[in-house]
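#struct-help
A.M.: can someone run this one for me? Single chain, 370 residues.
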Amino acid sequence: MLDVIVVGAGAAGVGISAILDDLGVDDMLILEREKVGTSFKKWPKEMRLITPSFTTNFYGQADLNSIMARSSPAYFLRKEHPTGKEYAEYLKSLVEYCNLPIVEHTNIEKVTYSKGVFSLKITNGKELRTRFLIWAAGEFQYPNMTVFPGSELCLHNSKVKSWKDVKGDEHFIIGGYESGIDAAVHLSRLGKEVYVLDGNAPWGDRTTDPSLSLSPFTTERLEEEMKHGRINLIGKSKIKKVSKKGDEYLIEIKGKSKIHTSKTPPILATGFKSSLTLIEDLFEWDKEESYALLNEEDESTKTPGLFLVGPQVRHENLIFCFIYKYRQRFGVVANAIGERLELDTEILEYYRQEGFYLDDLSCCADECDC
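D.P.: on it. Structure tokens below:
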């Protein structure tokens, strides 16, 4: 039986595994359904990380996109805003540097828990058993295609390999947050007319939490591209349904009589489903906003020994959906597991100084004064 199994070899999985390796956890295994960084490799070719990378390690601040102390995507890639494919190369380099124990092309078919032990049925009917299970599977490979009636007629942005491949001169994008505006910018750069529909108008929100408003990188690109007059932002447009009549797609808006028509499939930028579907019964869930409930150690409030890391971590109004956010909880999970394995956790104080161990969430609610 293993001490730890980490599910997923993306940014969260590699990051938490590197810390556990540093901590001295020997009986550990990382399971990846495809290959290291696959979710990033599947990004549209033009998509880039919205948070800037900069080599600031020598001055006490880790690169915003690093998932391991002493590393920097900016240094390794020589890029400020890496593409998904480039970032996957950074992750692969960390796996090789740390010699992390990863088994690729391994699909998890079933997870059960009994008497303090997790049993995972994997590819070819094999079974693995572990004391601790860390779920670090991302969401990008689980596009939400059930947002409204007719969603299946749309093209989810995660299915686009390159915006140059998308046919047509006019496009409707449903969803006006990061991925929707990113799609609009790239299509506009190709000379195409774009209409962005959103139930609110996130492009006009202004808050210090980028989980709730557009990043400066996206805002700057949008403002520059708006000068060409090809992007039309349409707020207060919550989709009622999408249907197809002949060669046209009909987009109906709740509470409005006007129906938008498109000759191309509407582009969905409405997010993803949770990757926790396979183990949803091992969590308690917030009844209003449907996120997994975790204790102060990011452990399931229902199943002891089951930890969550990555963009699905949430504590009430605190959403850890970006790398520089959720990496701060790596040390919390590592400390919980290290103490139960009776390991020396003193090294985690180094990770605290580097911004990978935030256990006091009271500081996360502050707004900027200017």
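A.M.: thanks! The mean pLDDT is 93.
D.P.: also worth noting: The CA atoms of residues 12 and 310 lie 5 Å apart.
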